[in-house]
Write a structure and sequence with these properties.
This protein is of the alpha+beta class. The chain contains twelve helices and 26 strands. Strands 1, 2, 3, 4, 5, 14, 15 and 16 form an eight-stranded mixed sheet that branches. The protein has an eight-stranded mixed sheet with strand order 6-7-8-9-10-11-12-13. An eight-stranded antiparallel barrel has the order 19-20-21-22-23-24-25-26. The radius of gyration is 28 Å and the shape is globular.
Length: about 550
């Protein structure tokens, strides 16, 4: 039960709101309900690579793109995002990651009685594992990926030869349906041997893969005969081989991690022997296989985890044979780096559709590597296609995402400049209509230095509806563009969680649901921050608006 003084304060807010609004009818006309609708106004919108429009609006409603065009009517419940000088792209799609999963620590070498026939888990053979059961929605790897502009990713388990089944997940969203966009998206496979037991070599992995696949085909046939006949012994259950059934039925592809050209050859060798559908993921050295990939129609995702390219000057102090040897090594290294970073341009020139995978990528290298690919010949439109339309097509997601069009999921990246320019920064990311803010405005302090304006921290508040003021504290926390917070009243020590928090420039918006004796009182607030103080308004359909202000509480 709420403390009496707090109840009196809320009652005063209700009464004051009615008096201020001039009656319930005026309130109903003037006040806007809490909404998850947004309209981005007057922005440059890239509906797809090579198709951009200036001065366009994007209307977001119920997690979907409702409309795209000029001078759209603004719904009464929509929150407005000023799009002047901003660029809107479709949310990026990642072909392979381990987002949402905790990376396992490397254990000690296993001690098994028969290293030639170890238990499946020790051998790295766990195709039955479902990544959905391993996901942690609040894992930092998900928010890190979202901060790069990725709204969808194909996430797979960690492991060795057969880690398990992958899924297509969202990197955020409206919270109603969780992260999963498509389950059972792939059977993830690698040429990664086990430690100290069979199969611990690439040849062993390939032999074991054939053995398991053939066992699965026989097991599936036995199960089919048993289900359609009488008088047969019930087949033995085997979850390892049963995990291959959807692959044999061609309802689930094998996602083969193949970094080097030899691994790409090996993956094709197995695929052609056994006949499964395949996706190549994490490819780093595919330039000699472009013709094969194109002719086979295999979906391919090139790795963004690239060897570091340092712009080094040659050593001019060497002479004679040392100088010759040094220059040969220097040239070979530079030539190889050009092949790595020129691979997207090569695939584009040869009309090979491709996407990117972030597995193993450091967040700080993402933009740097893209810019280096651009330097080596890839165009902005080619790189944008590899981040949006191509992966949407390769993963079968084009109905839902990949372009900025009405009816698609509201997965968007909003930047303050061309994304493929060095100075560009991400301002907002929308995932299924939920807005995440990344802008940090700076201003000069008294010493002429730039200082950040951020709502993070603990603040006092005084809300004055015209009667007895309510006082307390507000605490705001931020994690990669996602905000959380609490409002703590001095009156009775009652606390309430803030929701739908967004911060843009110096403006913070939030919602809070105050419950008084079973009665729900929804409030929304808009606060304008400086470095050490804020002011704004709080309102609800019952109370109207009234001022609120506060100051930062030093740590």
């Amino acid at each position: 039960m709420m403390h009496t003084s707090l109840r009196q304060c809320l009652s005063m807010l209700l009464l004051t709101g009615i008096l201020m609004a001039g009656g319930f009818r005026a309130l109903a006309q003037d006040l806007r309900p809490v909404s998850k609708s947004y309209i981005i106004q007057n922005a440059t919108v890239f509906q797809a690579p090579g198709r951009s429009y200036q001065g366009y609006d994007v209307l977001i409603k119920d997690g979907l793109i409702s409309a795209v065009g000029q001078d759209l009517a603004v719904p009464a419940d929509a929150q407005m995002v000023e799009g002047d000088s901003l660029i809107v792209y479709a949310g990026f799609i990642d072909g392979l990651s381990h987002a949402g999963l905790e990376e396992p620590k490397r254990g000690e070498r296993p001690n098994v009685k028969d290293p030639g026939n170890p238990p499946d888990e020790i051998a790295g053979i766990t195709p039955y594992r479902d990544v959905r059961e391993l996901l942690k929605e609040n894992d930092k790897s998900v928010s890190d990926l979202r901060a790069l502009g990725f709204t969808v990713t194909h996430t797979v388990p960690y492991g060795n030869m057969l880690p398990g089944k992958g899924a297509i997940i969202l990197t955020g969203g409206n919270g109603d349906n969780g992260l999963i966009l498509r389950e059972n998206a792939s059977l993830y496979s690698q040429f990664e041997g086990a430690r100290g037991v069979y199969p611990n070599t690439v040849i062993g992995v390939m032999a074991k893969y054939r053995e398991l696949y053939k066992q699965a085909e026989l097991s599936k046939n036995d199960a089919s005969r048993y289900n359609s006949s009488q008088g047969l012994k019930r087949p033995m259950e085997n979850r390892v081989v049963e995990a291959f059934y959807p692959v044999i039925e061609n309802t689930m592809p094998v996602a083969f991690h193949a970094e080097g050209v030899k691994d790409v050859y090996r993956a094709y060798h197995l695929q052609e022997d056994l006949g499964f559908r395949m996706i190549l993921v994490g490819v780093k050295q595919g330039w000699d296989m472009a013709d094969k990939i194109k002719s086979s129609g295999t979906p391919v995702f090139l790795s963004l985890d690239m060897p570091e390219w340092k712009d080094e000057a040659r050593d001019s102090t060497l002479t004679g044979s040392k100088a010759k040897e040094y220059n040969q090594l220097f040239d070979r290294k530079e030539e190889m780096l050009k092949k790595y970073y020129g691979q997207p341009a090569l695939f584009s020139q040869q009309a090979v559709p491709y996407g990117f995978s972030t597995a193993g990528l450091k967040s700080s290298d993402f933009r740097k590597n893209l810019l280096k690919m651009k330097e080596q010949g890839a165009t902005d439109d080619q790189l944008l296609a590899a981040l949006t339309t191509s992966p949407a097509s390769l993963l079968g997601l084009s109905r839902w995402t990949g372009t900025v069009e009405p009816g698609k999921m509201a997965n968007l990246v909003v930047t303050d400049n061309n994304f493929f320019d060095e100075e560009s920064t991400i301002r907002y990311v929308f995932v299924e209509g939920k807005k995440y803010d990344f802008e940090e405005k700076k201003k000069k302090d008294k010493n002429g230095e730039k200082s950040e304006i951020t709502p993070e921290g603990k603040w006092t508040f005084t809300a004055d509806p015209g009667g007895a003021p309510a006082t307390g504290t507000i605490e705001i926390k931020e994690n990669n563009g996602e905000y959380s917070g609490t409002m703590n009243y001095d009156q009775g020590g009652t606390s309430f969680e803030l929701s739908d928090i967004s911060f843009s420039g110096t403006t913070l918006e939030f919602s809070v649901l105050i419950i008084d004796g079973g009665q729900e009182l929804p409030f929304t607030g808009t606060l304008e921050f400086t470095a050490d103080s804020y002011s704004g308004t709080v309102s609800s359909p019952s109370t109207g608006g009234f001022p609120i202000s506060g100051e930062r509480i030093p740590n």
